[in-house]
Amino acid sequence: MLNKILETKKEEISRLVLPEEGQFTKRSFYDALKNPNRHIGLIAEVKKASPSKGLIKENFHPVEIALAYEKGGADCLSVLTDVQYFQGANDYLTAVKNAVNIPILRKDFIIDELQIEEARRIGADAILLIGEALEAERLKELYDDAHSKNLDVLVEVHDIETLERVLKVFTPKLLGVNNRNLKTFETNIHQLKEIAQLIPKDTLLVGESGIYTKEDLDTVKSYGASAVLVGESLMRKENQTEAIKELYGEIVNG
Ligand SMILES: O=C(O)c1ccccc1NCC(=O)[C@H](O)[C@H](O)COP(=O)(O)O
User: Looking at the domain assignment, is residue 252 inside a domain?
Assistant: First the structure.
């Protein structure tokens, strides 16, 4: 699936026309996770659908969801902008940016500088770079390009081989380990356990995907994560503010 998505991205980039420059207040995604509201930081994801789960939330109002996440104490947001596979949109990110006061990650499959400039113009504070999608040297080029545009970068890996490839070239400030294999969709809450040993001590570690319960949250934290990225389990609930409190064990819903 990842390779199919990347082929689609190449085609989208060939047709990409940059939007007009927007006027946005830049917020530090990294600083928000460095100083989280709770014992482990939360990147709450605004995601309507996905390849592995199909339609997740039919009654999808991204600004309402984002405000509810913010009210629930999310440190940052992740907003899907991929249209074809996640039913996201650039306009969702811009609308959310104009509504909330916390930093926003553009969740998309970034493989070109044009997409980074586009992210900046639609109001993103950070972008995602997926290790399995890029050669390490190219990943570093895009990483540097994003920072030159005052955007933070969440570098994401799934397995040790990818992490080692990346670390041979550079050390990311912010690194996510995706519990989901983006090629097979297999998800393992313990994915971080082995990989965490190899993470440089000054790198802020984020556990991503397949986090449904406080137990999952505690498991990922026990492996060394300073933050988590959570989408489906929050999106499927009726009330995203309550969903966050339930995830952290602050309320117990039947
Ligand atoms: O989620 C998918 O089906 C998927 C398929 C192919 C590439 C990426 C995919 N998901 C992106 C993500 O990593 C998740 O949206 C994010 O980590 C949140 O995961 P979850 O909490 O399990 O929704």
Answer: no
Q: How far is the CA of 250 from the centre of ligand 1 (A)?
A: 25
State the DSSP code for 180.
B
Q: What is the crossing angle of helices 113-122 and 2-14, to 10°? A: 80
Q: Which two tokens stand for residue 230?
A: 């959570």
CA of 69 to the centre of ligand 1 (A): 18
Q: Specify the pTM.
A: 0.98
Q: Pocket around ligand 1: residues whose beta carbon is below 6 Å from it?
A: 1-2, 45, 47, 50-52, 178, 180, 182, 185, 208-211, 229-233
ipTM of this predicted complex? 0.98
Q: Which domain holds residue 200?
A: 2-13+27-247
Total number of domains in the chain: 1
